[in-house]
Design goal:
Arginase, Chain A; globular; 15% strand; 11 helices; alpha/beta; binds manganese (II) ion
Length: 337
């Protein structure tokens, strides 16, 4: 080794030590600004929080808390949505780096968002799960933060609605994207069923059917309980602009909760889910509708039913991440009612 090479090597080593990625705070990956080129935390590495927001349980000054509810004990067909929150988070990190179209970076800059991590519940004591999820939501909603929750099967929306109604008053309007109405009769108060929770929510006065709308439905129910249904054939026939008009007509300026079951999308766009039904929306149609809902009085939202084991090339998780990011930005203008 000659003198020149040795000097150069020393300089490189000194420089590398000063920039040692392992010497930096492990939270660096989640604290960096979007689009920041940081070799210590490439897109695919480090803690894969939603949109690279910091993992935190400090709700001080937080506008929106992302959290996961990794439950799939209420499914009627294929399980696997317990792995949904992790998959959607992982799919979201490249959105954070590129800036989310068409919003750019400004909305996220103006919104203090954390990733609160996952709700803990005891899967082996299923009768405790409803209250565990409600308690998780109450803790977050006791602050000024709104919730954007990643499922998990769709049952989680029921305890989330219980906590939201306690916080925001009852009943709430519901904007519900799904292949399934989830209003099938169920007289068992303690059942874990991802097809009946809106039957319970309407019966218990948690949501107002007159201020509620379902989009993308393509399964039969003899009684939709007074909820306005824009079924999938109606969406395909009339287009996304008409859907948006009808949603605003139904919900008006009422406080609303938005729930997006990823099986609203056609299995061609979202194969990674537990109860797929052909004939659904494309991811482009769904994104177009969600983006045009700017101005609704959104008090909370979830994206549910991503089951990564049945996914192909992460296409379902990616669609869910895009939808969740756009729903997040719908929260940016609305102060607490
Ligand atoms: Mn569904």
């Amino acid at each position: 080794m000659n003198r020149f090479t040795g000097t150069l090597h020393t300089e490189i080593m000194t420089s590398a030590l000063q920039k040692d990625p392992f010497a930096t705070d492990s939270a660096q990956a989640t604290n960096r600004s979007p689009q920041q080129q940081d070799p210590a935390s490439p897109t695919y590495a480090g803690p894969l929080s939603f949109l690279r927001r910091p993992y935190s349980r400090d709700l001080t000054g937080v506008d929106v808390a992302i959290s996961g509810v990794p439950l799939d004990l209420a499914t009627t067909y294929r399980p696997g949505a317990r792995l949904g929150p992790a998959a959607v988070r992982a799919a979201s990190v490249q959105l954070a780096e590129l800036g989310i179209y068409p919003w750019g970076l400004a909305p996220l800059d103006a919104l203090n968002v954390i990733d609160y991590g996952d709700c803990w519940f005891d899967a082996h004591r299923p009768w405790t799960i409803r209250d565990a999820i409600a308690a998780h939501a109450r803790t977050i909603l006791a602050s000024e933060a709104k919730m954007l929750t990643l499922g998990g099967d769709h049952y989680i929306t029921y305890p989330l609605l219980i906590a939201h109604v306690e916080r925001f008053g009852r009943p709430l309007g519901l904007i519900h994207f799904d292949a399934h109405c989830d209003t099938w009769p169920d007289e068992h108060a303690d059942s874990l069923n991802h097809g009946t929770m809106f039957y319970k929510a309407i019966r218990e006065g948690l949501i107002d059917p007159a201020r509620s709308v379902q989009v993308g439905i393509r399964t039969w129910n003899s009684d939709f309980m007074g909820v306005r249904v824009l079924d999938a054939p109606w969406v395909h026939r009339h287009g996304t602009a008409a859907v948006v008009d009808r949603i605003f007509e139904v919900v008006g300026d009422a406080p609303v909760y938005l729930t997006f079951d990823i099986d609203c999308l056609d299995p061609a766009f979202a194969p990674g889910t537990g109860t797929p039904v052909a004939g659904g929306l494309s991811s482009a149609q769904a994104l177009e509708i969600v983006r045009e809902l700017d101005g609704i009085q959104l008090v909370g939202a979830d994206v549910v039913e991503v089951a990564p084991s049945y996914d192909q090339s992460d296409v379902t998780a990616l669609a869910a991440a895009h939808l969740a990011a756009d729903i997040l930005f719908l929260m940016r203008k609305q102060p607490h009612p």
